[in-house]
């Protein structure tokens, strides 16, 4: 294998291992602001949303830790497969989930006409994920043809994933 053959893999490795850092920065903002936001906006949020998201800061942090562990498992799977094959395709979907989450934060802020937890870092998340997905596209893990379905899957898969993480935080908190 020549140096030029390994460069794209190194590039993919960089995107893969930066994603957990982007997630931590973004979700740290959410952890720090969620409880205060929910208390101050309880009158403007649907009751069902308040019921689902009514976690203590510790429970919410545990939910975030669950998601981070899942992300790291996907990172390790990608590394184990030398940043090729199905693990990288699945990682592209994971990246699209984070992209969808960033868009959701922008939508929430537009609907509520103000700050929502995660809003400050959402543009950075969106930019990072778009650049990462472009890199995955250049490497052949996603194509122009399946980019939109990957993004749509990411947008819709974030909802059950968040629900599972919140349930984890609620169930396993001390």
Shape: globular
Order of helices and strands: HHHHHH
Number of strands: 0
Radius of gyration: 17 Å
What is the CA–CA distance across the termini? 51 Å
Tell me the count of domains.
1
What is the percentage of strand-forming residues?
Answer: under 5%
**Helix/strand structural class:** mainly alpha
Per-chain topology:
Layout: H1 3-40, H2 47-53, H3 57-80, H4 85-112, H5 122-138, H6 144-172
Helix pairs in contact: 1-3, 1-5, 3-4, 3-6, 4-5, 4-6
What does it look like?
The protein is mainly α and 174 residues long. It has one domain (16-172). The chain is 82% helix and 0% strand. It has helices at residues 3-40, 47-53, 57-80, 85-112, 122-138, 144-172. Helix 4 (85-112) crosses helix 6 (144-172). The longest helix has 38 residues, at 3-40. It is globular and about 50 Å long. The relative contact order is 0.16. The model is unreliable at 1-5 (pLDDT under 50).
Summarize the structure.
With 174 residues, the chain is mostly helical.
Annotation keywords:
single chain; 174 residues; mainly alpha; 6 helices; 0% strand
């Amino acid at each position: 294998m020549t140096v030029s053959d390994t460069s794209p893999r190194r590039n993919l490795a960089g995107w893969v291992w930066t994603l957990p850092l982007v997630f931590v920065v973004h979700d740290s903002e959410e952890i720090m602001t969620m409880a205060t936001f929910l208390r101050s906006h309880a009158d403007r949020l649907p009751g069902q949303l308040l019921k689902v998201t009514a976690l203590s800061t510790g429970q919410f942090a545990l939910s975030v830790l669950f998601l981070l562990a899942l992300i790291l498992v996907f990172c390790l799977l990608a590394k184990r497969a030398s940043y090729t094959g199905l693990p990288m395709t699945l990682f592209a979907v994971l990246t699209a989930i984070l992209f969808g989450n960033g868009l959701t934060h922008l939508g929430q802020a537009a609907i509520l006409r103000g700050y929502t937890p995660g809003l400050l870092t959402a543009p950075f998340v969106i930019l990072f994920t778009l650049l990462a997905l472009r890199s995955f596209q250049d490497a052949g893990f996603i194509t122009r043809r399946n980019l939109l379905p990957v993004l749509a899957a990411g947008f819709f898969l974030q909802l059950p994933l968040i629900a599972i993480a919140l349930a984890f935080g609620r169930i396993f908190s001390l």
